[in-house]
Amino acid sequence: MNVALTQKLIIDKVKSLEDPFLLEAIESLLSFSVNKEKFKLTDEQKKKIEDSRSQFLNGEYSDQNAYFSELRLWLKEK
Q1: What gap in Å lies between CA 25 and CA 17, rounded to an integer?
Q2: DSSP secondary structure string, the chain?
Q3: Distance between CA atoms of 24 and 14, rounded to whole angstroms?
Q4: First-residue to last-residue Cα distance in the chain
Q5: What does the alpha-carbon distance between residue 78 and residue 75 come to, in Å, rounded to a whole number?
Q6: Same domain, yes or no, for 23 and 58?
Q7: Chain-centre distance of CA 53, in angstroms?
Q8: Same structural domain for residues 24 and 54?
Q9: pLDDT in tens, 23-58
Q10: Which domain holds residue 24?
């Protein structure tokens, strides 16, 4: 699907919306995506991101299914 057609489909769908909360959420999302301002991270936040990247690259993570399986087992024990 090309960009012009996608834009038209989105505009048509938005025009038909009447839920003010949904419209506000869409507006907020669009405002966020248009705002190209970079986030300013603290040194602690940067360190946590770097630690997370290292853990991922070292295979120190679980996929969502494994996590929920573990969680279900833990909940059954309670």
Answers
A1: 12
A2: --HHHHHHHHHHHHHH---HHHHHHHHHHHHHHH--PPPPPPHHHHHHHHHHHHHHHTT----HHHHHHHHHHHHHH-
A3: 11
A4: 50
A5: 5
A6: no
A7: 17
A8: no
A9: 999 998 888 766 666 778 899 999 999 999 999 999
A10: 1-37
